[in-house]
Amino acid sequence: MLDVALRGRIVIEDVQGYVKQTLAQPAAAATSAAPAGGSGIPPIPAVDFSQFGEIETVPLARIRKLSAAHLHRAWVNIPHVTQTDDADITDLEAFRKSASDESGTKLTLLPFVMKAVEKAMQAYPDFNSSLSPDGASLIRKKYLHIGFAADTPNGLVVPVIKDADKKGVLQISQEMSELAKKARDGKLGPADMSGATFTISSLGGIGGRYFTPIINAPEVAILGVCKSQMEPVWDGKQFVPRLMLPLSLTWDHRVIDGAAAARFNAYLGQILSDFRRVLL
Ligand code: CAO
Q1: Residues 139, 130: contact at Cβ < 8 Å?
Q2: Is 224 in the pocket of ligand 1 (CB under 6 A)?
Q3: N or C, which end of the chain has less CB nearby within 10 Å?
Q4: How far is CA 179 from each of CA 146, 150, 168, 213, rounded to the nearest angstrom?
Q5: Tens of pLDDT along 133-170?
């Protein structure tokens, strides 16, 4: 620590000493078997990359720093498990296109997925819960707010659609567009980003098959959605072309068991393959 108590001011030797001491810590920890750092996890040793070639140091944007800490906390504290599945969205895709034409609004798949997730959460309420801080009980929420990850030039943010169970696909889509625009413009307020009980992270507009999304703590599950693609699917007699949507569901194993997660995913897939089930 800086030696300021006696002299009441910081001198150059104090700063040099502090930097030396801080730089020495990771190297010492890396060569020692003793745990280092508050979590007991040995830190990654500091490396002077400039010894290997030219480098540039770019400060992280505020959002990136905040989300880095949040994601790290969640990753270290929660036993994550990810299960992947595919949903047949051939009929939903036809419905999405006709609903877009009829409404004169550009409807992407995501609001339909959010509506289906909301139904699945009602059927499996543990997915709409949080663990109490002492881990002794489950707090089931009677409200259903769903966040969606939005990519912005400054980093990842998660705006929240409040009361998704009380809204139709068109309203969800409209609110999503407004929130996504606010996110890109850096105008989201804390109220826009708080209170989520579940999060959807869609990389569908970009690509990829599956991924392992990190739970947005203190939520207990997150759904990753990737790009749909046409695949040959066996219908019992022949292969038929079907549009398949890859789903990656990550859950907190302290709260949700694998069987419950598989049921949630299967139920979600049923709704997405026959969207009329939303009415039931
Ligand atoms: N399969 C195939 N196509 C898809 C799709 C899917 N699952 N999801 C979206 N698309 C298509 C859309 O229909 C749209 O097509 P057109 O340009 O032909 O109309 C295109 O991809 C772009 O969609 P979009 O991304 O603008 O809209 P969206 O409603 O799907 O998503 C938003 C909105 C804000 C979630 C998205 O823009 C975004 O930021 N995604 C990134 C989220 C992210 O970073 N997640 C990772 C978090 S973990 O680091």
Answers
A1: yes
A2: no
A3: C
A4: 13, 9, 16, 21
A5: 999 999 999 999 999 999 998 899 999 999 999 999 99
Select 65-279's CATH number: 3.40.50.970, 3.90.1300.10, 3.30.559.10, 3.10.310.10: 3.30.559.10
Residue entry with tokens 């959460």: 121
Segment 88-140, tens digit of pLDDT: 999 999 999 999 999 898 999 999 999 999 999 999 999 999 999 999 999 99
**d(C-alpha 145, C-alpha 124), whole Å:** 15
Ligand 1 pocket member 92 (CB < 6 A): no
| Cα gap 257→126, rounded to integer Å | 10
Question: Catalytic: 253?
Answer: yes
Q: Please state the domain extents for the chain.
A: 12-57, 65-279
String of DSSP letters for 251-263: EETTT--HHHHHH
Degrees (nearest 5) of the Cα angle 205, 209, 211?
A: 95
pLDDT in tens, 174-215: 999 999 999 999 999 999 999 999 999 999 999 999 999 999
Ligand 1 pocket residue status of 204, Cβ below 6 Å: yes
Per-residue pLDDT, averaged over 59-74, amounts to 94
Mutation pick for ligand 1 pocket among 90, 108, 176 (CB with most ligand atoms within 8 Å): 108
The two structure tokens encoding residue 245: 């949507």
